Amino acid sequence: MGAQLRVYKRRIKSVTATKKITRAMEMIAASRIIKAQRRVAASEPYATELTRAVTAVAGGSATSHPLLTEAEQPKRAAVLLITSDRGLAGGYNSNAIKAAEQLNERLTAEGKEIVSFIVGSKGVAYYGFRDRPVKESFTGFTDNPTYADAKTVAASLIEAVQQETAEGGVDELHIVYTEFVSMMTQTPVRDRMLPLTLDGDQATEAAGGKGVLPLYDFEPSAEDVLDALLPRYVESRVYNALLQAAASKHAATRRAMKSATDNAEELIKSLTRLANAARQADITQEISEIVGGASALADANAGSDR
Amino acid sequence: MAELHVELVAADRKVWSGEASLVVARTSSGDIGVMPGHQPLLGVLESGPVTIRTSGESGSGTVVAAVHGGFISFADDQLSLLAEVAELTDEIDVERAERALEEAKSEADEGAERRADVRLRAVTAAR
Questions:
Q1: Domain membership flag for residue A8
Q2: Residue from A43, A219, A223, A243 whose CB has the most chain B CBs within 10 Å, to mutate
Q3: Which of A29, A131, A230, B119 sits between 20 and 30 A of B58, alpha carbons compared?
Q4: How open is the CA angle B20-B23-B29, to the nearest 5 degrees?
């Protein structure tokens, strides 16, 4: 076998092995998307009911709560960035980080100091490499977040919000995560969680399309209900964001691995062509060597006969 | 007879939904019973059993759930019970809860003791 041919054969073999791996990863991710999607759907009733309750209290009572009112001069803003622990997901992490960067720039331009909270080791690594301060980071559960994980993340956020601004507390709470729109589309979103903004659409939607929210009787009191509701609201928002991010990550992995598999196939095809050409060149050369050798022999024999 | 529609949802799933004629839950200011036509209400729930007297399509009977903190909201004959953790009594493993209660008591783990206690109370209420 020619040296050239051997090199091609070896490369085909290694690309085939890679293709097998990427194909397997694609299928694993595909099966996980379904599971993650189901969990997003399962968490929805709680989130909608909770949003409705929060809207009812915030809109239906004349209470002013520190978590609902805008600070006159917001000095600090917390940004929770949700990335994944592992890569191989195409532009998933860099898109989320880019969205957070844009948000940070905007907030800095508004004169607010950024306090970063990060979920996922990819985001932690990005900030660590650039020596940026991170208030707190959470890793180890991005593939399969549970409500308890969301609670730990939310707890430190709430703590930061409840601190006095002078003592390092934050006035605003933003969240950056990747929304799972469909199998093919996942978009990074930037949301402001607190202070709560209740635009008309949301309120109407929460009231079940009936337009006006009923006048609630609060038990024990509007303030107490709100005090209890808002942390739960933050938790549920964080939980939902984590679940969506997980589903998006799996979808992104699936897509990245699918194109990797396709590329491997393409590569194998062109390498096979090259290997075939090399093999034929080898054969042609061998034949011409044989023919050349035979005719040289024939010439020599013809000379000795004489 | 008027009915109210009940949705009992936990953070990660819908636990129970259906029609009911009476729901009894414990709020921070005492037990409260909600019947159809009650005035709109939003309250904070204490950990404890919630009793739902079912009616209509779900048949008449009683559903008891152990609810670990949460909220009750009622408007337009729609009642929602929101809880971080909620379990129906048939989902509760009594032996395990009893064991957990013993363990929690010996280790003085208040949170775990409360959780186990709520579960056992709910099971007792269902009987």
A1: no
A2: A219
A3: B119
A4: 165
3-state secondary structure B57-108: HHCCEEEEEEEECEEEEEECCEEEEEECEEEEHHHCCHHHHHHHHHHHHHHC
Residues of B with Cβ-Cβ distance to A229 under 8 angstroms = 71
Grade residue A16 by pLDDT with cuts at 50, 70 and 90.
very high
Peptide bond into A74 cis (omega under 30): no
* Residue A81, in any domain of the structure: yes
Q: What's the rounded Cα separation, in Å, for the pair B120 and A111?
A: 54
pLDDT tens for residues B16-42? 888 888 889 888 888 888 888 888 888
Query: Cβ(A105)–Cβ(A68) under 8 Å?
Result: no
Domains held by chain A: number? 1
Q: Which domain holds residue A247?
A: 26-258
Pairing of strands A172-180, A186-194: antiparallel
Which alpha helices (DSSP H) does A110-217 contain, by range? 121-129, 147-162, 200-206
CATH of the domain at A231: 3.40.1380.10
**A306 falls within a domain:** no
Predicted structure pTM score: 0.83
Strand order in the sheet with A76-82: A136-138, A113-119, A76-82, A172-180, A186-194
Half-sphere exposure of B94 (CA within 13 A, CB side): 10
Q: Which residues of B touch A155 (CB under 8 A)?
A: none
Which among A219, A228, A232 is the nearest to B41, CB-wise? A219
